[in-house]
């Protein structure tokens, strides 16, 4: 199926070449609807030049037609009706075309598959990581489908053997009844005269001996048939277990893992259609074998023959029941997880699904699913099959839902649309554990009846997510990068240099240190404060994500923000650049802050200056791009990009002219020591305040001393204090909003 998925992405001439492969000899619709089955067959195992291989080709043709007929039977609804007719027509057409020359069908399909693979390989370059992954996936899917084909053939073989056994046993019973009739005739001779008895007795005795000898031989033959059939069933069940392990413990667990990672920002886990089709095939094949084993048991009961067959059949019946039980309980999954953080009195949704519900007819007796919230300790006890006395750790409203069968998709699911956490019961916390560290899980429970209550399964869904005490740094890097890209909604993730910066911050280590084998504990991650700070590593990183997501996303995507650079690194980078070169880095000292570092001349020497960090509060007043535009001393974004080339497209357009004698105030950012006092109004880019045409000059006493002394705006390390500079801007805004007669000289407008 993976080849067909890739083939559908072809374009241009490659697409035309692919389309030309199909026609009346092999409709493209057959390729589409049977893609999984077609790619799972061993077409290359058939030698087209060997006439003896025609038997294999005939079996392939029969399998193809059977798959088409099965697909047609499952179509429902108006659209399904038309497709049902079309697929049935294709089945008849292919049978008519290839019934007398099945090897030609194999030749046709081999040519199609070879050409598609070549076109896909040429288009995607199979040496690339994506191409290699798709090749690997295609190979994996092919192995799974090949195993299903082997199971189908084994099941068909045992079905034929079972019918043969039944036929032979029925004939054996007839002959046994004949032996009883002969015995009755011999017994009746005792009432005849001696002469008549002597005349008839030899023939009856001879006939009885012949029949009894046949019965003895046939009883041994039947016993051998039964043992052979049991051995074949053993082989089938072994392969079923192996296939079930691959699908449930590999493929389904991988899907669940992808679902977990999707909660941290990984790509969506993908659909369940392929997994459901595999699980349904498992269910169908397992159920057929269970029925065969039960029929074999019925034949044994009908004609008991001493031997080990009774014990063998008991073992087979137990094994097949275990397989069905594991299949049903493992395929009860949470398709849509509830949110990772729940709030009381807040509605949330979830969806649970049974991947084998349609095949096992569970929907004939619609099961009800119940959701309860339990603690991590209770969840662990359930995993160990320990009793929890049906305790819960809270109350969920609207926590019962009946599973519904959707014919169009063949899915059996329950949609909890209006659940709400009414209350939560917390345990006593110890030590430094916070409320947010206490974990709970929502447990979904139901009871499924299979085969008219013949088998009843109790199912529970949701293994709690395991949180290790510590993880290797490379693993954490992968998670941080995944989370960052998802939160910021950006394709630009964290570079190796960014991750090295984070390692230095997390471990307080030298930048040259090898962190690949270092581990980070949960306590280091989000419980212990960073050195000389009052916040944790995660709190700092989460603040960076929030700031970037809300205010800096376009600049991060443009590559304008270096971000993960410390003060010393910024100084080393800027001192080698021309004056006015600046860069943007996330603040080390404040959660959710970003600062501008720039190089400029000092009376004695060149220095790198650092503006006090901006936060969300600041950007809610004026954007980063506009602030950079305000600061005329910022000329080049590191390393050498003119700032207007990078940020101009984000500048706020100039305000319109005065209307009805009023002007609109505008806040502008200044760094007083770098401000130009003699502003040229014609420049269109004033440093302090753009007030447009005013009714009178700024001569009122209130218009002076609106800036505090420069020294008061610097921190102990010579950094500009943004709060003070913003106080200036707010002061200007306040002046502009006061009544005109108290602020301006001249008549009121």
From TrEMBL:
Cellular localization per UniProt: Cytoplasm; Nucleus
Gene Ontology cellular-component terms listed: cytosol; nucleus
GO biological process, one term: cell surface receptor signaling pathway
Protein keywords: Activator, Cytoplasm, DNA-binding, Nucleus, Phosphoprotein, SH2 domain, Transcription, Transcription regulation
Pfam families (alphabetical): SH2, STAT_alpha, STAT_bind, STAT_int, STAT_linker
GO molecular function: DNA binding; DNA-binding transcription factor activity
Domain named SH2: residues: 556-654
Principal localisation: cytoplasm
PANTHER family: SIGNAL TRANSDUCER AND ACTIVATOR OF TRANSCRIPTION (PTHR11801)
Record-stated family: Belongs to the transcription factor STAT family.
Record-given protein name: Signal transducer and activator of transcription
Organism of origin: Gadus morhua (Atlantic cod)
